[in-house]
Structure formats: C-alpha cells, structure tokens
C-alpha cells in the first residue's frame, strides 16, 4: 500500500513543546489562581519550593523560586486555601504546565482566621499565654521603650499622653508595623532592648510598649507571627501590647504582660498621673504628721500621768540617807570599842611573850632540825649501802660472765684458728662483735640509768638536807652563838663577862666578847599607876 501524500508540516517534539510554552506564557502571562496547597514539604535544598494547587475538580503544579520565596509576606503551608499570583508556563521535559508564583495571599478572612486559630492553640499548648508567666508592671518606670513606627500617629499619641500624665524618658525603636519585614524588625527591637545594660551609655528600659494603629487582619498579621509572639513571651522586660483598636486582637496581646485597647491607653497604663501622685504623697505626709502629733500628745499625757503617781527623788533616798547617817555615827564608837578589846586581849597575852619563850622555841626548833639532819644523813648512807650491796654482786657476776665469754671465744679461736682462713676469721670476729654489741649496749644503758637514778636520789636528799639545815634559819636573820671551844651556847648563864664567843650568821661568822648583862628596861605604867611589861608591838 502506498503512502498518501500530504501538505502538513512536520514538527519535532521540541518545536511543539516550545510553541506550546510560548502560547501559554503569552496567553496567561499574569494570572491569579485560587486553590488548596497540597504536597508542600518546605524548601528544596536549592531554596525553591514545589507543591500543587488543587480544587475539587483539577490540580496544577506550582513552583516558587528561591528569590521570590524570601519576599513572600505569607508563607505557604500544607492544607491552606490561598490565592496565588504569577504566570503560567510549561516544563517541556515532562509535557506539564505549571504556575510560577510571585505572591501568595490567604483566600479570604476565613482562611486567615483558621490559620490564626491553629497557631493560637499551638502556642497556648506550649504555655506562652499562661497567666502565671505574666509579670506586674513597674509602678513608676524611669525609662520606657516604645516599639512602633517613628512616622505614624501612634508615637505622637503615646508621647503626648506621657507628657500629660507623668513626663518620662522614652526610647523609640523604629520598625515597620506591616509588610513582610514587620515581624523580624519587631523581634530585633524587643531583643535589642533586652540586650541593653542597666548602667550602659543607653539606659535599659523598665517597660516596653509594642504599639500600632488599627487595620485589617492582613495589616496586623505581622503581630500574629510566631517569632514575634515568642520574643514578647521571652522578654525579661515587662511588655504592654497596644496593637490596633479595641476590637482588634492579635497573638501578641495574649503573650504580653498587659493588653491595652489603644496606644493611648498603653501610655496611661505605663505611668500614673503626676498631679494625682503628688496629691497622694502630700495626703500621706499630712496624715503622717497628724499621726505623729497624736502619738506625741498621747505619750506626753501618759508621761504626765505616770509622773504624777511617782514619788519625788528626794523621798526615794531619804531612808537610805538616814541609815547612812546612823551607820557613820556608830562607826566611830565601834572602832573605839574594837581598839579597847584588842588592847585588853593584848594585855592578857603580853606576859607570855617574854624572851625566855622565844629562846625556848628557838632551842626546840634547833634540836628538831639537828635530829632531822642526822636522820637524813644516816638514811642517805643506808640507802647508798643498800644499793651498793645490790649492784656490786651484779657487777661482779657481769665481769665474771664477760671474762668467761672472752675465754670461751679465745679457746674456740685457738682450737679452730689454724683451720680457718682470714675470711672466716673476720666473719667469726664480726659474729662475736655482733653478740657482744647488745650486751655492751645493755651494760652502758644500765650504768647510765643507775647513775641517773643515784643522781636524782642524791639531789633530792641534798634538797631535803638543805631544807632541814639550820642555815636556812640563819638566812632569816637568826644567829648561832658558840663559845671559845666551838660548843653551842644554849643559855646566857653559861657566859661570863670577858668570854670570847663566835656569832655565826647566814653569810659568815664574827668573833665577839661578852661585856656584861644588858640593863633592865623600865616598865610602862598604866593609868592606875601599876607597872606593866612594855609592849613588843
């Protein structure tokens, strides 16, 4: 069968694919497609995003290039219904058409509210909205930090309200309050205020106000971003949120420490009214002064009442003064009576304190001292003899044993000496020296201990002899009288005028000659005229 002839042009697959691509791009160069995101797995390793837009009857592949994804205000998420703006094109390799997306918007308020509710439940489950995490605002902050747009009416309202209520130091961190850069700028502002040092060149705020005017949910969406909510919840400085009007609610309002319905209300909540505070302080000062006056007056009245019931100081010491006068008047009579008693007692014992009594007591003590000295010397000799009898036989036995040992060693050496070499002889000598060394050490130690014991005993005996010797009595001012033959003189009756005597004192002896009996002392007369012995005191 022959092939039929035709005038139809022939195209390659690539030519057809390129023609379809140009047709689609020319016809659908700018489109807005509404659909549900499906198959979204985040950014590819190249930075691009691939997913599918679908509805109940069809689907279309979608791609967001890396540069466009960074500019998106609303990021794609799985399952969301969105309106994608872009252009249609084809992918010749797989003969598919797709939409290259430049911008993505939520498909109406319903979708945004659903996303907002889902994000709210997630953050609430983490505890970022818990009431226990909220802190009390400072009563009078020194520095207030404001995060808002520097060109809007919000900052002017806040500054004007602060100036009316209580002028304060305000630091403004300028940010964009809507758009794709709103969330990162607000996060940087909150973290930047928290990073300031309390004593740094820029003072650290005591309170933060995050403020913005009213707007649609899309305009306020930057304050619903998860990063902003976490920055507000993690701030170490208390935060007041004033985003939108009274009916506007964002996630930042739930995470902040206080939500103000308007920026002006945030300024009112931040500081008290200065005039009211001054009036309150003046009222407290007046009440304090009145209370002080009442307390002082009450104390003065009580003191007067107590003082009226107390006795006079002169009455308190009157009795003691009278007792002192009586005691002082009785003191002289008691002293005179005591002197008289002592004088009578002295007169009774005066007769017994004659020189004979003193001589007799001295003789008794000297005799006792002599006996003790003799006993001490005899005891010392007896102790020495007893120890000599104990140690002399031991010393003799020790000498005999040493001589016997030396003889035994000599005999042994003479018996085996010729048979031993010089090395063996030296070894035997070392062995003998080793046996004799302990005995020598024991003997030396025994002699040293014995000498030390005898030295201690002799020292104690010498001390005892010194304490019992009559020389200690002489050192106290007494003297021993001896006649020419060196015998002790016990009484004056044994001496006659012209006899030579020797007087022994504590520091030496002197010779003297007896001249005669001392003259009798005149006795003092008592008031009654009777003679009495003269007082020795």
Q: Return the string of H and E elements.
A: HEEEHEEHEHEHEHEHEHHHHHHEEEEE
Summarize model confidence as the mean pLDDT. Answer: 82
Supply the CATH superfamily name of the domain at 139-270.
Succinyl-CoA synthetase domains
Helix/sheet category: alpha/beta
What topology, given as strand order, has the largest sheet? 1-2-3-5-4
CATH topology tier name of the domain at 139-270: Rossmann fold
Oligomer: single chain
Nearest-angstrom radius of gyration?
65 Å
Uncertain segments? 519-537
Number-wise, the strands total 15
Question: What is the CATH top level name of the domain at 139-270?
Answer: Alpha Beta
Provide the CATH architecture of the domain at 139-270: 3-Layer(aba) Sandwich
User: How many individual helices?
Assistant: 13
Strand content: 15-25%
Distance between the termini: 183 Å
- Percent of residues in helices: 40-55%
Give the overall shape, derived from the CA principal axes: elongated
Largest beta sheet, briefly? Answer: 5 strands, mixed, barrel
